[in-house]
Amino acid sequence: MVVTKEILKKLYKEYNDLYFDGKLGKCDFSFFPKNISSLGWYCGKEDSKGRPKDKIWIATSVKWTEDVLKRVLIHEMIHKYVYRVEGHKYDGLLGHGWRFRRQCRRIRRDFGLKVLRFSNVEFINPKFYPKLWEKVLLWIIDR
């Protein structure tokens, strides 16, 4: 699956309405260079006038499937929710504290979607497979 900004914007709107009651504001999208192994990353800032300037970065090193893209995008949207809606910029270990985990549990309970299950991720370059610390982190935050 080829991921474009247009696809991300469409999915973002759909998931915002479905999983977050439309509470997330506008978001821009960018792509990591091919040598970055992260699947996604949310960056929330304010511009010089104090207005939200949010961006979600998505990997180019992954052979995307619809399922994995959905989980990664919702994962990053939860980070945005905790920051913008709940008002907490810092939430535990690498942003995966109890507020983040609470939203993961809510989505799992209400929609049957386990946001943090990435066992079927296939990287374009095999050297990018998750490191042990990344696997441990995902195991911890999915409790």
Folded structure, characterized:
- The protein has 143 residues and is of the alpha+beta class.
- It is globular and about 40 Å long.
- It has a three-stranded mixed beta sheet with strand order 1-3-2.
- The protein has a single domain, classed as Metalloproteases ("zincins"), catalytic domain (Zincin-like), CATH 3.30.2010.
- α1 crosses α2 and α2 packs across α3.
- The chain contains four helices and three strands.
Topology-level CATH name: Zincin-like
User: Which CATH-level-2 architecture?
Assistant: 2-Layer Sandwich
Domain unit count: 1
Main β sheet profile: 3 strands, mixed
Which short descriptors sum up this protein?
3-stranded mixed β-sheet; 143 residues; globular; Zincin-like; 41% helix; alpha+beta; 13% strand; 4 helices
Can I get a quick summary?
By secondary structure, the chain is of the alpha+beta class.
Topology:
Elements lengths: L4 H15 L8 E4 L8 E7 L5 E7 L7 H20 L12 H14 L20 H10 L2
Parallel strand pairs: 1-3
Antiparallel strand pairs: 2-3
Helix pairs in contact: 1-2, 2-3
